[in-house]
Design goal:
Radius of gyration: 23 Å
Helix content: 25-40%
Oligomer: single chain
Number of helices: 14
Structural class: alpha+beta
Strand content: 15-25%
Distance between the termini: 21 Å
Number of strands: 12
Bound molecules: iron/sulfur cluster
């Protein structure tokens, strides 16, 4: 697969909670989120399943899945499957090459079951409020009006789309499909708190008062934060400042110039394959935060057939990434992963970036792939400005 191009950077007219969060870490990361050709990078399978999970939550909240718990579960599963199928069929070719079908994505059944159970519990929690309303109702309820609706601040500089607003409880709720194993039971991350606080600000700007923010996780855990008017105003002011800083920088810098590589900002950043700053700055000490990423020159590539699948082993002279420099072997990569975007197999002299891999041996350095995570990107020798 060829390394994708960075986006053409423009000013941000509006800033959303996720864009705000990215810009706090790295302006280039935010630029990719706002302007990048996102279909040129494969998403994590969990992100795709998370989108389907959210579709089920939205339908359940809007009362579109039926009247009884059994109906809701059954229709929730059907919606989850159809949405995952649709997302998978339009997903990056690497994801399709790896898994072949949407229902082979890792933890597909677990996500589907959690979505169905959560959808049913939403109805059980408050059946009167979530009673099925006719789609054609002339007077949609406030719940329906606010669910998954894009809200803007009065100056239209901040926008956001809350999952659900519970008017009786004065709470804005965000449903998370991931388990967030790194945090304790009733805690939320700073990023989740910022997101809920900005939603509270946006709701107030739209004449809806909420005083609490709730994170509702698919594994049953919930975390809650009280949100004062002052806290919401403060977060909105910070978001506007971050937007101004981004726009000032974007007026004079391109994507690579905006990048601010560090173990904290680059953790889980989708831009790693194309970010020169990352490859110029990362070192072995970053691996505990950002994972295993390997950049270097191809010295030799060989292919062999294993159980009917053609796999490649690549000898790489490592000179960048989060592993030690020197000779290494990247073992048993299905060749389909390398050519699924119609690229040629890399050859000696080309440069490769192996992203989100695993180390199977330190000495000699042997890198293996992870089916859910790993991607391998090629820069042909002739196209590397460094080699000209
Ligand atoms: S990889 Fe790091 S430096 Fe590059 S865009 Fe992402 S966060 Fe910024």
């Amino acid at each position: 697969m060829r390394v994708p191009q960075g986006p053409i950077v423009r000013p941000l007219d509006t800033i959303s909670p996720t864009l705000y969060d990215s810009a706090l870490l790295c302006k280039a990361r935010a630029a990719w989120q706002a302007f990048g050709q996102r279909d040129t990078l494969p998403s994590h399978p969990a992100a795709l399943l998370g989108q389907a999970y959210h579709a089920v939550m939205e339908a359940a909240i809007l009362g579109r899945l039926g009247a009884t718990g059994e109906e809701v579960e059954e229709r929730g599963r059907a919606l989850f499957e159809s949405r995952t199928e649709r997302l998978f069929k339009s997903s990056h070719p690497l994801l399709r090459a790896k898994f072949g079908r949407w229902d082979r994505l890792p933890y597909y059944s677990l996500y589907m079951e959690r979505a169905a159970q959560k959808a049913a519990s939403l109805r059980r929690a408050d059946p009167a409020k979530r009673r099925l309303e006719p789609e054609s109702s002339d007077q949609p309820s406030a719940t329906r009006r606010l669910t998954e609706k894009e809200l803007f601040s009065s100056d239209r500089r901040i926008k956001g789309r809350p999952d659900y607003v519970d008017l009786d409880q004065g709470a804005v709720i965000d449903y998370k499909s991931g388990a967030a194993l790194q945090i304790a039971n009733d805690e939320m991350t700073d990023s989740e708190r910022r997101q809920l606080t900005l939603y509270a600000f946006l709701l107030r700007e739209n004449e809806v008062a909420v005083t609490r923010g709730i994170i509702d996780r698919a594994d049953g855990r919930r975390a809650e934060v009280a949100i004062s008017v002052e806290a919401a105003e403060r977060e909105a002011a910070n978001a506007r400042t971050v937007q101004d800083e981004f726009n000032n920088a974007a007026a004079i810098l391109d994507f690579q110039g905006l990048a601010n590589a560090s173990p904290i900002s680059c953790a889980s950043c989708p831009c790693i394959p194309l970010c020169e700053q990352f490859w110029n700055n990362a070192n072995k000490d970053w691996s505990s935060s950002v994972g295993v990423h390997v950049g270097g020159r191809v010295e030799h590539i060989s292919t062999v057939e294993v159980s009917g699948v053609q796999v490649a082993s690549i000898s790489v002279g490592v000179d960048s990434g989060t592993v030690q420099s020197g000779p290494s072997t990247v073992e048993q990569i299905p060749t389909q992963w390398l050519t699924c975007d119609s690229s040629d197999l890399p050859s000696a002299g080309d440069y490769v970036r192996v992203v989100d891999a695993k180390i199977s041996s330190d000495d000699p350095l042997v890198i293996v792939t992870d089916k859910a995570m790993t991607s391998v990107w090629t820069q042909p020798r002739a196209e590397r400005p460094q080699d000209a």
